[in-house]
Amino acid sequence: MSANTRGWWDLTSARALGYDPVDDAESYAAAITAAHGEPTPGTVEFDRVGGEYAGPDFAVDAVAARAQQA
Fold this sequence. Notes:
The protein is mainly alpha-helical. Helix content is 43%, strand content 0%. The protein has helices at residues 12-16, 26-36, 44-47, 60-69. The longest helix has 11 residues, at 26-36. The protein is extended, with a radius of gyration of 16 Å.
């Protein structure tokens, strides 16, 4: 977990334990947005941690089925 400007989680408890994040992915946001656009609310890319890799194409059953086809 980093000190991301657009972070989703409250780091209060982690900071109480001495965790002090320093990295912020915001420094890459302009380039990523220019290349790929902003994610659309309501999509897997926007709504889930892991983005597209948390979608149905990467569910255990789907990955196992692809592995058997290979």
